Amino acid sequence: MARNRRDLHLLKLKGGLSTAEAAKIDAFFEQLMSDKDLPILGKSLLHEHFVAGFEYYLQKGKSVDDICKLLDLSYLGDFYSGKKRTSYSLDNAAIVYPLGMKYGQMPMFRLAVELKEDIQPVLLQLALDFTLKRFPTFSAVIKNGFFWHYLETVNSVFLIEEEKDIPCKPISILLRSYRSFRVLYYRKRLSVEYFHVLTDGSGGMVFLKTLLSEYLRLKEISVPKEKGVLDVNGQIDEAELVNEFKKAEGESSFATFMDKKSLQLDGKRMKTNISRIIHFEMDTDKLHETARSYGATITAYMTALIFLAAEKCVSSKKGIFNIQIPVNMRKFNGSKTLRNYSMYFNASMELDKLPEKEELIKQIAAQIKERGSEDMMKQMMKTTEKLIDTLSFVPLFLKVPIMQNLYGYMSNSIIACTLSNLGVVELPRAMEKQIDKASFLLVPGAPNRASATLVSVCGTSVFTIIKNSDDPRFENELYKLLKEDELIEKVEGSVEYES
């Protein structure tokens, strides 16, 4: 029955073509279906994707020869026909994520780009089909080992989805079809949502840029393989798969993980992971100049604004308010790893003793310089390694309840908000011409009410507040503060998602 359906699709596809052109299409699909190792479902899905690709290009007036070059089956490699499954141990940051999930909480983040034209789903699906083989740890499912979870590659076809749901919705790890990321499209927006077990923002951006490059190639726009764009047909570099935490040096100190319990923003927490999203668009050069006028980096400036906004949004100000700031460790050693390689520290202030804006920015800049230093981050890496070694021989079924409590104590309860700044994302010029802006979402974990992110692309910086409460004061205060420094060019907000 499935074969008859495929034959009908090909018959329709060849309608109106010359005998020679029809023969070339037959030869193309015979080659696709001749791989005996490819599972039946995989063959069926890939067949549908390539039929849709041919239909798209034929409607555009492309010749069959040109279409065969664009959709050359060599772009699939041997990924979908491989029976061998490869296992990867989780990196030291990823290990805690499946252990620490509790009450529907799942550490998810999204990277997205807004293109100048609507996404063509047919081409995006083929781009994903061609790209996935280059990222072996992404084409994987999470498995339960006796002592730890681990990743195991699956040579199956991943499907794109039209975005219709709440952003960064948790992915069920109980399903056999479970994937650790999803590719979404909505009008001009291309998004990839990741379970943090796979990668961090930097690794995720490499995947997004490479996927976009392949999509643009299918639109006959050539993008150089530079600035984080990988060749989908290139050899996999072992340096991309390294668990850099294993190389941690220096002294360990469990005190680096501990901090006082943080005050939290007011507002009732919603049942969904995200209740609202607000994007503040700013000119990157102007934002940099403003931060520099205070003698600070953009991260220090934005962190100080979050403290000032929080002062208006916390009823009981007696105590410490902590903002978690991730640090991309690649900047210290140039690592190519696509796995998690970020550490973090807390910027801390007593809300009832906040100094004036200029002095606050100065103090935050000093904290960032000290606490985010290479030595301090290496110490935290070494401590992470030691903690994992301590639990190495505890069976997984015993680790889960231990880590769920420990993870909550050492992470979300001691912070009120995270500010993750991906900085200026460099793109090949040919890709820049196709993009208006980018955005970054990071799901707040319980008991936090908000997360903040910043990413700069093509001269536009998008500062995003991701809410998980019904209280709008925090984003309103940030709007006022950014407006005072004449930074805001545009504000966009999502609908309020049902709780």
Summarize the structure.
It is built from 15 helices and 15 strands.
CATH superfamily of the largest domain: Nonribosomal peptide synthetase, condensation domain
Distance between the termini: 44 Å
Strand elements, count: 15
Name the strands of the widest sheet in spatial order: 10-9-11-13-14-8-15
Question: Based on helices, strands and strand pairing, what is the structural class?
Answer: alpha+beta
Tally of structural domains: 3
CATH class of the largest domain: Alpha Beta
Q: Could you tell me the strand content as a percent range? A: 15-25%
- Compute the gyration radius: what is it? 24 Å
**Which residue ranges are poorly predicted, with pLDDT under 50 across at least 5 consecutive positions?**
none
Average pLDDT, all residues = 89
State the helical fraction. 25-40%
CATH fold category name of the largest domain: Chloramphenicol Acetyltransferase
Number of helices: 15
Under the CATH scheme, the architecture of the largest domain is: 2-Layer Sandwich
Features:
3 domains; Chloramphenicol Acetyltransferase; 15 strands; 499 residues; seven-stranded mixed sheet; five-stranded mixed sheet; alpha+beta; single chain
How does the SSE layout of this entry go?
Blueprint: H1 2-14, H2 19-33, H3 40-59, H4 64-70, E1 87-89, H5 96-100, E2 108-115, H6 121-131, E3 140-144, E4 149-153, E5 161-162, E6 181-186, E7 189-195, H7 201-218, E8 276-283, H8 284-293, H9 298-311, E9 320-328, H10 330-333, E10 342-350, H11 357-371, H12 374-391, H13 396-410, E11 417-424, H14 429-432, E12 435-442, E13 450-457, E14 460-467, H15 473-484, E15 488-493
Parallel strand pairs: 5-6, 9-11, 11-13
Antiparallel strand pairs: 1-4, 2-7, 2-12, 3-4, 6-7, 8-14, 8-15, 9-10, 13-14
Helix pairs in contact: 1-3, 3-6, 6-7, 8-9, 9-11, 9-15
